[in-house]
Specification:
signal; two-stranded parallel sheet; single chain; mainly alpha; 9 helices
């Protein structure tokens, strides 16, 4: 009696874990590259003061004052710094999207099925060890093989591959 109850609870838990992980990931949209004029307009600052994106990323409030003759208020300084961070983040995500996983898609699937730790390492390499996907895959593989496999295969399309 106790053995059948334990087995049924384990099977129910396994089904719940597998179905909750098997949801399709949201479709990622490519980030829109901001031009210096668009970034300044979004920040609420006058456009046409900066020609190159590098100049905008390194601009300080003193340099802005030299260019325009207008002193930035505290709110405008915060908006300028936020715009700089946003552009830097978009540039980093654009670089990360160009990174390839060092194996082909078919080999990655085989690794995910037969050598799960290798698939987790490949996910970590593709994320430059900064994302959470490889941690989640590692934990799911450690808890139970099937949820880890499902999670890894659903995240398969988030990476580009050497075909």
């Amino acid at each position: 009696m106790l053995k059948t109850l334990t087995t049924s609870v384990f099977i129910c838990l396994l089904v719940v874990l597998c179905t909750s992980v098997a949801v399709a990931p949201p479709v990622a949209t490519a980030p829109v590259a901001l031009t210096p004029a668009a970034a300044l307009a979004e920040a609420g600052l006058p456009a046409g003061t900066v020609d190159k994106i590098e100049d905008l990323l390194t601009m300080t409030p003193k340099e802005y004052r030299k260019l325009t003759g207008k002193k930035l208020s505290l709110k405008e300084v915060i908006v300028l710094k936020a715009a700089q961070k946003k552009i830097k983040k978009q540039m980093r995500s654009g670089e990360r999207q160009r990174d390839d996983i060092p194996v082909s898609k078919g080999l990655f699937i085989v690794l995910a099925i037969f050598v799960p730790i290798a698939a987790v390492i490949m996910m970590g390499i593709a994320d430059e060890w900064s994302g959470n996907r490889w941690w989640i895959a590692l934990i799911l593989y450690a808890l139970c093989y099937i949820p880890g496999l499902i999670y890894t295969l659903t995240k398969l399309n988030d990476f580009s591959y050497n075909e």
